[in-house]
Specification:
Elements lengths: L15 E2 L1 H8 L3 H9 L7 E3 L2 E5 H14 L3 H14 L1
Helix pairs in contact: 1-2
Length: 87
């Protein structure tokens, strides 16, 4: 499978990500990604025959949860300053 739609020629984003691709997707090393999975912060992979792949949608949801759980005073202050500059 080439990852393209043969009718329109558009590329499709993969739904299943390898370990390395999932780590890169969230901006961490594969070792850090493994720790996040072990800690339950990132989702566990699904098995497709002998391959382990991560569902991109579940990785997205876990990343969104991470973003809101780790909000701190500095982030709130930075967001407020950014909003002030744009208004």
């Amino acid at each position: 499978m080439s990852g393209s739609d043969s009718h329109s020629g558009t590329r499709l984003a993969p739904r299943g990500l390898s370990r390395a691709a999932a780590a890169q997707y969230v901006g961490v090393s594969p070792g850090t990604f493994d720790k996040l999975v072990a800690d339950g912060i990132m989702p566990r992979p699904v098995a497709i025959r002998s391959r382990k792949v991560w569902d991109r949608f579940k990785v997205d949801a876990a990343f969104e949860d991470l973003s809101t759980e780790n909000e701190n005073e500095w982030d709130t202050e930075w967001d407020s300053q950014q909003n002030d500059h744009h208004t």
